[in-house]
């Protein structure tokens, strides 16, 4: 596939990195020559210096022959203009990053499609959705729902109280034959492991599990975790993510939002009827005490500064908050923040890149998620008629070693994958895969 990406910021660069592992012809267009030179030295792609709103520069980037044109610059106006122009020049499919909720309303989205914009991506909305999802299930990390919650993927840390610590996967399977779940990966320090029968669970492992919804509490008990209700929460930062999260959560729990800018606080107080808006610095320990941080079940830091969010979450944990979520936009900080116990992390740029990535695959991909603290992807793929994945039982198929089938959704039924199950045409299959196996997995589902 020939793909032109406009914008060499964090979203465009990460997307180009993901795609460079595949057999795509990638062109990255940006007006910052120094940035492109740096990227060109690390990735196997073609860079073009120029403006994505210039017809001349778009033609130079060979947009006319592009199967997919993606505009993810920091400017919404630039993204909209460039996708319209790219479609006019000849791009087969176009995607634009936006910052305006109004464009997602059905009538507006339909109008933009008539202009040549096939898909819209709103990173802040994706991030707010992630926060809300994480807070809906206490005790877990990186909660994802597939097919409306028929299957769930979540991460659980193995504590010293866990009954499965130091046991192998085969031993745990023998202990839990009546439970519908499957451990699909383990994050251990800096390594992501696809577990096999002999793999042993260790204290501190972050285990990624696929299960049915009703099984979560049993899995948590195995890991030494306890479920608790989140009734009181505090949000630091009146960003778009903070606002969208507050609008949704304010109806379900007691919510406070801290914003350091006084004028912005006044505006937020008018628009957020179900949340108490407080003007103040969320890094101020005394202010947090005054606002009852010790009574909070969850703390969400979504200011525009990664360092502030990390430090605020560490402070909230020290003051007794069980559940903390930090927006960490500096990708280099993610592993460090995870190792020092910040809690759950979100990165709207990586969420956007993962969302877009599924449009670059030949297989029918319903969902694609890049796991924040892992170097892996989770895909929900549809088994096409005659595809190799349907030609035998899972245990008999030559499935890549760097990937794992977690579960299957067949019509309204969810099934945890085992070796003796045969995937059928139109099944939705949840696959956990490292980058090295994505292309092989894709071929099995084509």
From TrEMBL:
SUPFAM superfamilies: NAD(P)-binding Rossmann-fold domains, TrkA C-terminal domain-like. The keyword Iron-sulfur does not apply. Signal peptide: none annotated. Keywords: Ion transport, NAD, Potassium, Potassium transport, Transport. Pfam families: TrkA_C, TrkA_N. Residues 141-225, 363-446 form the RCK C-terminal domain. Residues 1-121, 230-351 form the RCK N-terminal domain. The keyword Ion transport applies. InterPro entries: K_uptake_TrkA, NAD(P)-bd_dom_sf, RCK_C, RCK_C_sf, RCK_N, Trk_Ktr_HKT_K-transport. GO terms for molecular function: potassium ion transmembrane transporter activity. PANTHER family: POTASSIUM CHANNEL PROTEIN 2-RELATED-RELATED (PTHR43833), TRK SYSTEM POTASSIUM UPTAKE PROTEIN TRKA (PTHR43833:SF5). This is Trk system potassium uptake protein TrkA. One of its GO terms (cellular component) is plasma membrane.
